[in-house]
Amino acid sequence: MQVNWTASYVGRRLTEKIALGLDQSSYPNMLFVHRDAEGADPNDRYIEIRSAVNASGYTGPLTPIVPRRTIEAWLLLDGPAIREIVGRPRGTEPLALPQPRDIERDVNPKERLRQALLVASAPRGRRRVKRFNANWENYRNQLLENLPIGGPLERLESWTRFRDDTIAALNLLSN
Questions:
Q1: Cα 84 from chain centroid (whole Å)
Q2: Residue 63 pairs with which residues in a beta bridge?
Q3: How far is residue 84's CA from residue 47's CA, in Å, rounded to a whole number?
Q4: Predicted confidence (pLDDT) per residue in 23-82, tens digit
């Protein structure tokens, strides 16, 4: 299976982003399109994704990824992983992570994740803070790549919809 992480193409419409992503690779067996709901009705994002994919001409299986706020909310469920990513697995500083039932209601999960990573890394001095700031996106990406399936994620509506959509798309591939 080939995974193609396409650049975000900031400032472009979703239709253009999908078309550019499809142009960068051979025709994919399955397409994942991520769009944060950012507190709006997730169904509007699903409609937007399906419309953009239809306009791109892609006809294969599609799996929309639509977290209720931002995808960083999913990463707030695993304090030990946050500590591990920054290289301090035995750290004891409180990370102030929300309860799983509150994850999808958090107003700014991206900033909350950034703060949790900062606290977990316990930077001291300007150079360490500067190094943290330079690595923050890398930390976030590592957490996404190592996101544990199951457990607390199963309590999140946006995750279970993503899981079910992925299973449906895989079933289309196998038929």
A1: 18
A2: 32
A3: 37
A4: 877 778 899 999 999 988 999 999 999 999 999 889 989 999 999 999 999 999 999 999
